[in-house]
Structure formats: C-alpha cells, structure tokens
Amino acid sequence: MYSEKVMDHFQHPRNVGEIENASGVGTVGNAKCGDIMRIYLDIDDNGIIKDCKFKTFGCGAAVATSSMATEMVMGKSIQEALQVTNKAVMEALDGLPPVKVHCSLLAEEAIHAALWDYAEKHGIKIEGLKKPK
Ligand code: FES
Ligand code: FES
User: Can you tell me the ipTM of this complex?
Assistant: First the structure.
C-alpha cells in the first residue's frame, strides 16, 4: 500500500522537533481528520531557510510527507519553498494511497502558515502567499 520511500520517512522521520526562537511557526489542523501539524522555520537575513523542523499529531502519511517536505524546503529561498506543494512532496515519495492525500496537505499548509508568521513578524509581504485559514 505504501511506497518504500513513505515507509522509510515514516520509520525514520527527518527533522522532528522544535526550533527555539524560530523565524516563523505555523500550526494547522486538518479539516478532514482533525489532526494537527506544527512547522518551525529558521530563515536567515538573505531569506534562505536554514532549518526546518516539524511536530505532528498525525498519521503515518502525515509523518512521512512532513519529513520529506522539511528536507525539500531546507536551504531554499522563500519563493522556492512555496513550490514545495503537497503534490511535489507526494511525487518525491513515489505517491500515496488516495485516502491519504489529505494528510499531505498538512505540511504544505503548515509551511505556508510559518512563512506567513515570518512575514508578519518582519513586516514584509511574500508574493504568492495566502493568509492561512
Ligand atoms: Fe489521523 Fe487517524 S485520523 S491518524
Ligand atoms: Fe490525519 Fe493522516 S489521517 S493526517
């Protein structure tokens, strides 16, 4: 049912934890299952994501997609991080079963929420970023 990559990221999730004094923190809930995800971003003065960590009250698919998403945004610019959609993450994991697609939205939404938090704290506007729900 799950690809080898999904199982790998589920069993050995990357970048689990918190960042103290993070540049941006985003917490979102999944409307479909009620699960929760929090993403911490550390962004340097050049707008490069230096570190990214996550915590979730989610299922295995949420763990695996968040783990992959944190790896994908690491070292990227803010604009590049906006391209890390749930579709891109699922592709990088060789797919997810259809009933688990909603789980992959948590990471994307939490990254966006963390970027929004960062932008608000710095009084800037990030092009293409919508206010989190
Ligand atoms: Fe999320 Fe069951 S509803 S793990
Ligand atoms: Fe809730 Fe997967 S069932 S995140």
Answer: 0.73
